[in-house]
Amino acid sequence: MSKNIVFFKDVLPMVADILSAQTLDIEPLVIRDIHGRIKIAIDMPRANGTEGSIRNLDKSLLALGVYSSELGKNIVFRDDFFEPDSIFQNTEILQWSDTKTGKVIRVLNRQITGQEWDSAIAANESKTARLVFFGIKGGVGRSTALAMLAYKLANLGKKVLLVDLDLESPGLSGLLLPTERLADFGIVDWLIEDALGQSDHVLDRMVSVSPLSEYTQGEIRIATAMGINDPCYLDKLSRAYADVSIYGKPETFTKRICRLIDRLEEKEKPEVVLIDSRAGLHDLAAISIVSLASTAFLFATDTEQSWQGYRLLFSHWQSYPEIAIKVRERLTIVQALFPEGEQSRRAKHFLESSYTLFSETLYDEITPSTTNEAVNLENELFNFDLEAENAPHFPLRINWSNRFQEFDPKLLGQGLFSDAEIDACFGDFLNKAVQFTEINPS
């Protein structure tokens, strides 16, 4: 008998429906493998799992078509695992919620990449503001804005550390460092040597001082992706993303990057850390936003491509509420390349599009209510009015300017750009972004 035709996007909603129709003494765990196939794990010995409800569940899961196994193999038990606690007490288990029905199931995803977008968020113990610059697409001036903010903060007397996590398209070195000023080692070198226990020998030789510091009260220091005169960067990059064993215990790539940033902060003692994230839905971007940021600036232009890309990401978080609740409070939209013409209409349209994106995905829904208890509850919901300037959807704006197209930020301190010119293009973004450096991560 042929199996039902079922597609990946339908699987978890179907599993939620199947499980809600069952009566089980133990809450099941849904394990989804790298192809999306489903097993239901029950935290009890197999010998105890012979009752009718288990058999009915096994049979019901056949409705998943190619995403199920044959009858009798859809359910696994505690004694089927070599280390059962590594499964049933795994910190990557998340509550998945069907956004249409509200049904909730516990899911453990097995993925090749992308796991970091729905990784559990550990408490950020850093006392330093970490501002992440992210764009769903490249070419929106993200790295240039980071350079401008670094210069602004250094002018205010701040010690600023810049970290280039765009490993596959390094940019900060070219923007803020002459080639001859690159450090001996970069982020990729640390990852390679750390896997073999030599990271301490690299850490002291991977930060450079930007020449812009000569014109400011503060200092701009940069940890770039690559070191100076590196002929084997691609060979290293192909190995950099690996999980490793540290002191006999496995450590994920996410934890390694977080440990690196902690070590850099400990050594450099910056007042602000600015992180240039890779664009797109890449694991490094996920780590930057989900695991590192105290504030994540999301660069966007008013195009269908931008809104579709962010909706893909926000909708993913929406299905994992415990992640969405933590991430959404650190997000801030940046309207990049704001055009010179029809600014009133364009500003209104961008604001409405941004508000629609957030309200349909990450903001809590407010329902009509008449009781005082309900009204008090609504006041605690994460929701904002369209014109609320403190809302994540309310954009920080960077104006398009021909004067700043293809300009070299290394020339900022030489008087080629007036304060008025900089303010006209970047003023709104810079003045508001500075405020995020004064708020310690929660």
Question: What can you see in these coordinates?
Answer:
The strands form three sheets. The protein has an eight-stranded mixed beta sheet, with helices on both faces. Strands 3-2-1-5-4 form a five-stranded mixed beta sheet. Strand 4 and strand 5 (104-109) form a beta hairpin. The longest helix is centred in the last third of the chain and has 18 residues, at 419-436. It is built from 15 helices and 15 strands. Helix content is 36%, strand content 16%. It has helices spanning 8-20, 52-60, 85-88, 142-155, 172-176, 187-194, 199-203, 233-240, 253-268, 283-292, 304-318, 321-327, 343-359, 372-379, 419-436; strands at 29-32, 38-42, 75-77, 94-97, 104-109, 129-135, 159-164, 208-209, 219-223, 244-246, 249-251, 272-276, 295-300, 331-338, 396-399.
The largest sheet has its strands arranged as 8-9-7-12-6-13-14-15
CATH architecture of the largest domain: 3-Layer(aba) Sandwich
| Fraction of residues in β-strands | 15-25%
Ends distance: 55 Å
The count of DSSP E runs of length 2 or more, i.e. the number of strands, is: 15
Computed over alpha carbons, the radius of gyration is 25 Å
Helix content: 25-40%
Structural class estimated from helices and strands:
alpha/beta
Main sheet, how many strands, which sense, barrel?
8 strands, mixed
CATH structural fold name of the largest domain:
Rossmann fold
- Give the overall form: globular
* Individual helix count: 15
Low-confidence stretches: 370-378
Mean pLDDT: 87
Order of helices and strands: HEEHEHEEEHEHHHEEHEEHEHEHHEHHEH
- Tally the structural domains: 2
> In CATH, what is the class of the largest domain?
Alpha Beta
